[in-house]
From TrEMBL:
It is found in: Cell membrane. Belongs to the KdpC family. The gene is kdpC. InterPro entries: KdpC. Part of the high-affinity ATP-driven potassium transport (or Kdp) system, which catalyzes the hydrolysis of ATP coupled with the electrogenic transport of potassium into the cytoplasm. This subunit acts as a catalytic chaperone that increases the ATP-binding affinity of the ATP-hydrolyzing subunit KdpB by the formation of a transient KdpB/KdpC/ATP ternary complex. It is a single-pass membrane protein. The system is composed of three essential subunits: KdpA, KdpB and KdpC. The chain crosses the membrane at residues 20-42. Signal peptide: none annotated. This is Potassium-transporting ATPase KdpC subunit. Pfam families: KdpC. It comes from Ewingella americana (strain ATCC 33852 / DSM 4580 / CCUG 14506 / JCM 5911 / LMG 7869 / NCTC 12157 / CDC 1468-78).
Length: 208
């Protein structure tokens, strides 16, 4: 009998519900503070200090006024500006709140008509250019926000820009060259031109 009493006295008390709940609450609070407060503040502070331009959204300014971001295209339609890729975002073209493509299959007749209409409009606006329209000028991207076009697409529009602005073709082509970005290695992708940056540079060139 005495042995049984000694074993019962040495047994730990049974854990209660609160003994499980308290550490769970403490860990939840600590992890929330670490990952939801401390980590975002630290990473934001470092990125703002070291990569301020990127951290602020890669904004392009004209005399201190924000004209856009180099990461999001804009719907240029005037003859004296370079045009970007078509955008299929809902409500308005290049709507960053509704990023997405048209979801049309290549077998969809509506896609064929849309491409044909774009080709006709581009040929009409660029009568001095080659009848062979670069494909990226008539097809929308998956995001609908692409800010870049191929070098060929920019050069294809060069004569229209030169005529509309009273510039020489050489001036316009030099602007394209100056605003062409190439990947570190050719297999990563082709060279591209940011349309907003190109048009921003275009506005700073005077006619001869």
């Amino acid at each position: 009998m005495s042995v049984l009493r000694t074993q019962s006295a040495n047994q730990a008390p049974a854990p209660t519900r609160m003994s499980y709940l308290r550490p769970a609450i403490v860990m939840t609070v600590l992890l929330t503070l670490a990952t939801g407060v401390v980590y975002p503040f630290v990473t934001t502070g470092i990125s703002t200090a070291v990569f301020n331009y990127r951290a602020e959204g890669s904004l392009i300014r004209d005399n201190g006024v924000i004209v856009g971001s180099e990461l999001i295209g804009q719907n240029f339609t005037r003859d004296n500006y370079f045009w970007g890729r078509p955008s299929a975002t809902s409500d308005t073209p290049y709507n960053p709140m509704a990023s997405g493509g048209s979801n049309m299959a290549v077998s969809n007749p509506a896609l064929d008509k849309a491409v044909a209409d774009r080709v006709a409009a581009l040929r009409k606006a660029n009568p001095q250019s080659s009848p062979q329209v670069p494909v990226d000028l008539v097809t929308a991207s998956g995001s609908g926000l692409d800010p870049q076009i191929s070098v060929e697409a920019a050069q294809w529009q060069a004569q229209r820009i030169a005529t509309a602005r009273g510039l020489t073709l050489a001036q316009v082509n030099k602007l394209i060259d100056d605003n062409t970005s190439s990947p570190l290695a050719s297999f990563i992708g082709p060279s591209v031109v940011n349309v907003l940056e190109l048009n921003h540079a275009l506005d700073n060139v005077k006619a001869q």
